[in-house]
Amino acid sequence: MQARPVDYSRTTITELMIPSYANFGGKIHGGLLLSLMDKVAYACASRHAGTYCVTVSVGAVDFLQPVDVGDLVSLMASVNYVGRTSLVVGIRVNSENVQTREVRHTNTSYFTMVAKGEDGNPAEVPPLMLESYDDVRRFATAVYRRRVRGELLDNMAAFSERFTIDEEVRAALANERCVLHVK
Ligand SMILES: CC(C)(COP(=O)(O)OP(=O)(O)OC[C@H]1O[C@@H](n2cnc3c(N)ncnc32)[C@H](O)[C@@H]1OP(=O)(O)O)[C@@H](O)C(=O)NCCC(=O)NCCS
Prior knowledge:
Elements: E1 4-5, E2 11-16, H1 30-49, E3 52-58, E4 72-82, E5 86-96, E6 103-116, E7 128-129, H2 133-161, H3 167-173
This protein binds coenzyme A.
Coenzyme A binds next to strand 3 and strand 6.
């Protein structure tokens, strides 16, 4: 399978934030932004894979800045990593005030997508051609993130399995804002 460069699938979606996207506080719903991120991740992954793709995992999403009604939100997506059938799409979200032209970075997130063949099974994707320093940095960072996440998930599973309310847990919760009232 021939490698495809990152530029082959780089995708940007820009959308005007209209009043119906706002929450009760007058700011844009986080869920609306998540939906736009899923959309741009799909477009970017499908362009690279040349097939239909599904979202399998969404990395941590931290909204660093509120987005206002009237802002122009741009979501810039590129493939950061490919496995055999999976792809990690990095998405940077910027919000622009169209009157002042001030641009704010609202968040960066990573969506893992899986390519599907016509039979509905995961399908092999083309390798990624890394043509710049940033391409290599993002790919290597994704490899590192994948390994660290695997270790974290193993540790969390082990923690849940051996969990019991013992002295260690009581000590860990002593300075937290909770009251143990277990009968
Ligand atoms: C994604 C899906 C096809 C994976 O199925 P599966 O039986 O685990 O398939 P495989 O074990 O062959 O894994 C396929 C790839 O997904 C990756 N993968 C599976 N679960 C993953 C997870 N939780 N996080 C990251 N990657 C994951 C595997 O590492 C593998 O990648 P690789 O081929 O690059 O090594 C299946 O879980 C699915 O269809 N999920 C529903 C997706 C969906 O509908 N999304 C929309 C949101 S509602």
